[in-house]
Each structure stands twice: as structure tokens, then as C-alpha cells.
Amino acid sequence: MITGSSFPREGQETFNNGISSKERRECFVVSELATQPRLDVFLFQRAVLPSRSQIQRAILEGRVLVNEISVKAGYKLKNGDRIVLWHKEIESAGIKPEPVALNIVHEDHDLLVVDKPAGMVVHPSIGHSSGTLVNAIMAHCQDLSGIGGVERPGIVHRLDKDTSGLLVIAKNDRAHLSLVKQFQSREVEKVYLALVHGRIREERGVIDLPVGRDRIDRKKMSSRTLRGKAALTKWVVMEYFRFFTLLEVRIETGRTHQIRVHLSGLGHPVVGDPLYGGARRRGDMDAHTINLIKVMSRQALHAARLSFAHPVSREWLSFVSPLPPDFARLCQGLRSC
User: Fold this and answer.
1) Per-residue pLDDT tens over the stretch 125-163
2) Are 96 and 69 in contact (CB under 8 A)?
3) All residues at 6 or more sequence positions from 29 whose CB lies less than 8 Å from its CB, including other chains
4) Edge-to-edge order in the sheet of strand 25-31
5) What is the per-residue pLDDT across 206-225, written as a single tens digit (0 to 9) for each?
6) 8 A C-beta contact, residue 120 and residue 161
7) For the chain, what is the mean pLDDT?
8) CB within 8 A of 3, min separation 6: which ones?
9) Dist. CA 16–CA 173, nearest whole Å
10) CB neighbours of residue 98 within 10 Å
11) Sequence-ordered list of residues with C-beta below 8 angstroms from that of 59, at least 6 positions apart, any chain
């Protein structure tokens, strides 16, 4: 059995890696070991960070000490070992808070649920150093979880730039770890609305194909990949149009571009998707229909419902986002075609 117990915080001492204990830290005393587990495995089982790779990075950066000494990730723990983990401070990221407008659906002490508009990038990246969701929430919240890394404080999951809809943000580490665990164990319900090319014959279906980096185009994801991760997408027809089908899509995994890749592989790419064929496909569409599609100017994918257990109270929370105006206008226009 592997257990760990917190030990009291000590004075303002500085250990041999030069990190001051003024920074926020977690402390453990190892006890009741039946075997000698690796340090990274022990910390992962304690859920101190969302992934084992993040734990290993913290160890390499000298933010984990065992008995006041830096050790390797594979160090074999013994009863009585004292572990200290320092969490990165958000301020070191160099990301500037910006007063960007947010559509806040829910907020409490532990989390924030926002309805992200299409066109907003979730976190800073090359070419998107400002105006992101992270810039906005850093201006809105004084304290955020730093577990997501200094460039992604509070971010538990993400949506593509041109996908609209609901996102939950953790305001502290306790909430972040709980939410990440729920996502990893597939307890979170994520429901999307997607308008796709063509009329799908079946009323419902399941796509169970791995998703990974495309072997040729590194900007794309694909189901034909050597290192794909398991991905499961369920869809139900909501409405038929002349050239299109509106789907309700549920995903039990959260792979990059999962819905877009899976629906494109099905032969029904998301309308307006420039990467997976949805922007080029026109077929026998008339000029009026083509113009309707052009006016929307982004992929017709919307995160419409998000449900999960509150990370502290455990109350089941469910949030709904109506179709944004551009998506709603497109559907209304297609009904008249």
C-alpha cells in the first residue's frame, strides 16, 4: 500500500536548490510502503499534478526534493522519506492580463464557466500573444490554478479557435486536479452541435478510431496515424437540410480536432472547416446556399452543453449554451432552401 501524509510547513528556509519556501508548496511524508515505488509514480497517484509528464518536468526543474535533495524521477521511495513539491507561480509566465469581454455563465470560489465566442484563442501561442481567453481570465480573476503551466493557468480543457461554446476554468489547484481527473475518467459530459456536409443515412452512430498527428501534414490530426490515442465519438441526427445534416455529438475523449477528424473520416466534414475538407466541398449546391455558408466564415461546430461534478461540493452541474447568432442564422437560412 502507498500512502502519504502532509507534514507541517516549516520556517522561511531555503533548500539546496535555491527555491525559497515562500513559494506555494506541497509536502508529504511517505509511510506504510509495501514496495518501493518510483518518485514520479508516487506523486502521480497522489494527483499532485494532472499528468506524469508534468510531474517528471517538475522533478527535472528541481521543483521536487526528497529529504531536501534533488533526485531523479525513478528514485525508489522508502518509508520516512520527506517530499516537497513547489508549484510554479503564474506571475513568471509573462502573460499580461487584458480587459477582454467574457460571457460568464457561472462563477464561484472554485471555478468559472465561460461561453467562448468563435475566433477567440484559448491560450497564448505563436501568433496569438494577446486577446486570448487566458489573457481575459487573468484580468478577471486575481488567483488562478497554476497546474496547467505558466502559459495556461486555470485551463482544464480547450476548444479550437473557431469553435464556440462552453469551457470550465479552475480557479485553484484543488478544483483543477478534480476537474482533470473527471475529464480523464470520462465523467464529464460534453455535447456539441455540428453541421456537416451531406445527408447522413443513419439516424445515429459511433466512431471509435484513434486520433493522432498526421503522418504527412504535421498541422493536421488523423485517424491514419502510427501513434494515435483512443477516441470515441457518438452522434445523433437532429435535423436534415437539403445538402446538410445537423448532428448532436458527444465525445467521451478529448483528442485534438477529434470531432472534425472523425466526421471528415465518415465522409461528412464539418461545414466551413478549412483543415478537414468542409470549406472546399460544394457539390451541387446552388449559389444561395454557397453564399449562406460563406457568410458564416468559420466551422459550424458549437460546444452546446457541459456537465460535471463540482470539484468541492460534488453537486452535479450542467450548463447549456444556445446556438450563437451566426450558426443560428445559417440553420434558419438553410431551412428555406
Assistant:
1) 766 778 899 889 888 886 676 655 555 678 899 999 999
2) no
3) 4, 5, 6, 7, 80, 81, 82, 83
4) 3-5, 25-31, 82-86, 64-66
5) 999 999 988 888 789 999 88
6) yes
7) 85
8) 30, 31, 32
9) 26
10) 15
11) 39, 40, 70, 71, 72, 73
Confirm if 27 and 9 have CB atoms less than 8 A apart. yes
Q: Which runs of consecutive H residues, i.e. helices, occur in 156-305?
A: 173-184, 258-265, 287-296
Beta strands in the chain (DSSP E): 3-5, 25-31, 64-66, 82-86, 104-107, 111-116, 164-170, 189-197, 204-208, 212-213, 221-222, 232-240, 244-251, 301-309, 316-320
pLDDT at position 151 is: 52
> Is 160 part of the annotated catalytic residue set?
yes
- Contact indicator for 169, 176 with CB cutoff of 8 Å: no
Q: Give Cα separations from 153 to 131, 190, 228 (angstroms).
A: 15, 22, 27
> DSSP readout, 65-98?
EETTB---TTPBP-TT-EEEEEPPPGGGG-PPP-
pTM: 0.74
User: Can you list the residues of the chain whose pLDDT is less than 50?
Assistant: 1-22, 90-92
Active site residue: 81, 110, 115, 160, which one?
Answer: 160
Work out the burial of residue 41: count CB atoms within 10 Å of its CB; fewer than 13 is exposed, 13-18 middle, 19 or more buried.
Answer: middle
* 155 neighbors 135 (Cβ within 8 angstroms): no
- SS3 string, 177-192, reads HHHHHHHHCCCCEEEE
- Dist CA 337 CA 129 (whole Å): 41
Helices 325-335/287-296 angle, 10° precision: 170
CB neighbours of 9 closer than 8 A, spacing ≥ 6?
21, 25, 27
